[in-house]
Amino acid sequence: MGGSGDGRQEPPEDEGNRWVENAVLLGFFAVLVAAGIWLLGTMADIRKVQDCAAQGRRNCASIDVPERAR
Length: 70
Fold this sequence. Notes:
The protein is an all-alpha fold. The chain has one helix at residues 15-54.
C-alpha cells in the first residue's frame, strides 16, 4: 500500500475555482456592508425626524431648496 494510513488520496485543489469563490464572497461581503451603512444612515434620519416630532415641533421635515441661477 501507499504512504497514507487509510489509503485515500486527496483531490488536487483547483486554484482558479478558489479564486472565483473568493471573489464572489468578497463581492457579497461588500454589498452587505454597503447595505448596512445605507440602513444605518436611513435609521439616523428617521430618528431625527421622530425626535423633532416628539418635541411637538411642526417643521420637522427638511425642505430641499434648489439654488437660484444668477
